[in-house]
């Protein structure tokens, strides 16, 4: 007899729990956290490189001068001084914002959640890149959203495909609540939306009255080429909500992100945020404020760029050496991820357990779609490991793929 107990609360859960799911990456964290595993799965920022003296100084300064403020509740929309800092950070990427249009969130993830909470009723359509950030897909599913993927190529979202989806929805009498996009160094694709497509996408949004949620946590981590204008900066019609985060340029543990939107939207979002957490941590906001307003963040981001550029280069060189003929992968100009496509009949799902047996982990491509696509894909992250570990990880993965191909050959496939 099975010893598994039935869940005694089964009959009480809300309908939405039936479609709530964990992201592929979160599920992996416990498996891949073992020290012997080389995890190309996680997408972890290199927090060990955060300067100790700066950390100590900020902590001491807050304790000396702002202890009570840091321990108190704060305004739901966040501290005004941090909104000014955010305007400075966005200006470094060429985007000018009015600090009054900024709302501070508990990480970029909460910004995604609040936008969805504000706009989506169960059954509403949200458009998302295919593949799309898994954490956004988990949010969309927890609001019982009908996610429709729009295919991408090396230049990001394919706009003809977007138009076709919009036409189809119109014919079905439906309207997408918003389009979720990561134009810079997308997670998981590693692709960047071209300038031409950015311009056209913003035009299209105006023509079709389409709201866009532009998620840009990686924009400042560019390792080559010129920064491209954000969709937010190109839009003149109020169709773009911008989502930002300090997770990749300071620390994910600091849980500080933001949203920029027209005041009418911000007011609704702020009501939603009150219901979620009253305010984001004042202590963390003060930490970020001191780091940004002192200017120390600029050197740090520069150092991160160098660090991640070398790691990316190590991964790309190893892929060229170790992956079989017929495999292709994206060459990201920034961010944390390479998206590999394996030749048929290889299936990343079949390789996953075999890779873990060899103590190497990646994220299966189908975790970045809601509809089962992506089985031939792997997301490989280079952000959190030194170069030798990346090389060794890709070498092991190449071996696992080679063994699988041998097996297929033996089976006459
Ligand atoms: C595209 C994208 N958006 C948002 C997030 C959420 O990050 P956070 O909540 O730490 O700001 C991530 C994290 O990996 C991401 O890759």
Write the layout of secondary structure elements.
Layout: H1 24-32, E1 38-39, H2 52-65, H3 67-71, H4 80-91, E2 102-105, H5 107-119, E3 125-130, H6 134-142, E4 146-153, E5 156-157, H7 159-171, E6 176-181, H8 195-208, E7 212-215, H9 231-234, E8 240-245, E9 257-260, H10 263-277, H11 282-293, H12 296-322, E10 328-329, E11 337-341, H13 348-357, E12 360-361, E13 363-364, E14 377-381, H14 387-410
Parallel strand pairs: 1-12, 3-4, 3-6, 6-7, 7-8
Antiparallel strand pairs: 2-9, 4-5, 8-9, 10-11, 11-14, 13-14
The protein binds pyridoxal-5'-phosphate.
Write up this protein:
There is one protein chain. With 413 residues, this protein is of the alpha/beta class. It has 2 domains: 151 residues, Aspartate Aminotransferase, domain 1; 232 residues, Aspartate Aminotransferase, domain 2, CATH 3.40.640. It has 14 helices and 14 strands. Helix 8 links the parallel strand 6 and strand 7. The chain starts with 23 loop residues before the first helix and ends with a helix. The mean pLDDT is 95.
Strand order in the sheet with the most strands? 2-9-8-7-6-3-4-5
Largest sheet: 8 strands, mixed
Number of domains: 2
Helical amount: 40-55%
Report the radius of gyration as a whole number of Å.
22 Å
Q: What structural keywords apply?
A:
14 helices, 44% helix, binds pyridoxal-5'-phosphate, single chain, four-stranded antiparallel beta sheet, eight-stranded mixed beta sheet, 413 residues, 2 domains, alpha/beta, Aspartate Aminotransferase, domain 2
